[in-house]
Specification:
Helices cover about 75% and strands about 5% of the residues. It is mainly α. The protein has one domain. It has a two-stranded antiparallel sheet with strand order 1-2. The protein has a two-stranded antiparallel ribbon with strand order 3-4. Helix 3 crosses helix 5 and helix 6 (about 155-180) runs antiparallel to helix 9 (about 250-275). The longest helix is centred in the N-terminal third of the chain and has 26 residues, at about 70-95. Mean pLDDT is about 90; it is low at about 280-290.
């Protein structure tokens, strides 16, 4: 291995590269709200893919060496991959309306990085093929373009799916934060498998996010309080069954309140896109030159 035990360095280098790409995108684009919505939705969409491939099929494993605990180390690699590298790049491509040669170039770039990470031993495949990465990332860039186009048109199905993506992305990262703080873990008993913990956390987050998304369409405070009460009972039952390991369910309740509060805000952001002109990548210099 080129980096020896310092597995984290390649992951951090990519974090810097793609964060710079994101900052450049937001610096150049005037209408930022559609990009914020698209970014969160793209992240959530990438997470749905990761749920299937990593949590249920377990076709690969990340080894960034950020945490001693295998689950946290694996999930931290997944967050960087699915919430940073690829989504940040997709936003850059969509914002500047870049064509298929650029999309293919970045897809090849990610495929080569995957091969390099495998060679260095910081990413391990278990049935996954690099050609899947190449094809799926290329298609993902096209999906990002079309997603924004449909949001601008006010497509109701895409609007609802976008809201779900945003809610579940916020929810899963909130749960992972609790796990990183050692306040929460999923899995039956102390000796559950890595795969079991992945399945339980992602299933819990996905189902609860779907419920909270639906409640973003109601303004009834009583209904939302009722949901919190039922959710509280469910969480207590899961804790008693040792499926959720947590001393107090208060932190989870705080996440529930956060998501119920953010749901209507996210919904308004999404609806505003159809009323706006969408991203304008024209810089001030270009605008002045055209006058």
């Amino acid at each position: 291995m080129f980096f020896g035990k310092n597995n984290r360095y390649p992951y951090l280098i990519l974090l810097i590269i793609h964060s710079t790409l994101l900052l450049y995108t937001f610096a150049k684009v005037k209408n930022k709200k559609p990009l914020v919505v698209l970014l969160l939705s793209n992240m959530g969409l990438a997470y749905l893919f990761e749920y299937l491939i990593l949590s249920f099929l377990h076709l690969y494993r990340y080894k960034p060496n950020f945490f001693k605990k295998k689950f946290l180390d694996d999930i931290s690699g997944a967050i960087l991959s699915q919430a940073v590298y690829v989504p940040f790049t997709a936003l850059f491509i969509t914002a500047f309306k870049l064509k298929w040669p650029v999309k293919m170039g970045f897809a090849i770039y990610f495929a080569l990085i995957e091969k390099l990470f495998i060679k260095m031993g910081i990413f391990k495949k278990r049935g996954w093929k690099t050609r899947y990465t190449l094809v799926l990332i290329y298609l993902y860039f096209h999906v990002s373009d079309q997603w924004l186009r449909l949001l601008k048109k006010g497509n109701s199905i895409i609007q609802k799916f976008t809201l779900y993506n945003m809610v579940q992305f916020t929810g899963i990262n909130s749960l992972v934060t609790l796990e990183m703080l050692h306040l929460l873990s999923f899995g039956r008993g102390k000796h559950h498998s890595l795969m079991e913990q992945h399945k339980m956390e992602t299933s819990y987050s996905s189902i609860m996010s779907a419920i909270k998304t639906s409640f973003a369409y109601t303004e009834s405070v009583a209904v939302k309080i009722g949901l919190l009460s039922v959710k509280n009972i469910i969480d207590r039952a899961l804790r008693n069954m040792k499926l959720i390991n947590i001393k107090s369910i208060f932190p989870i309740t705080l996440i529930d309140v956060l998501l119920l509060s953010l749901g209507p805000v996210y919904k308004k952001w999404i609806e505003d896109i159809a009323l706006s002109d969408g991203p304008n990548t024209q810089t001030d210099q270009e605008a002045n030159g055209s006058r």
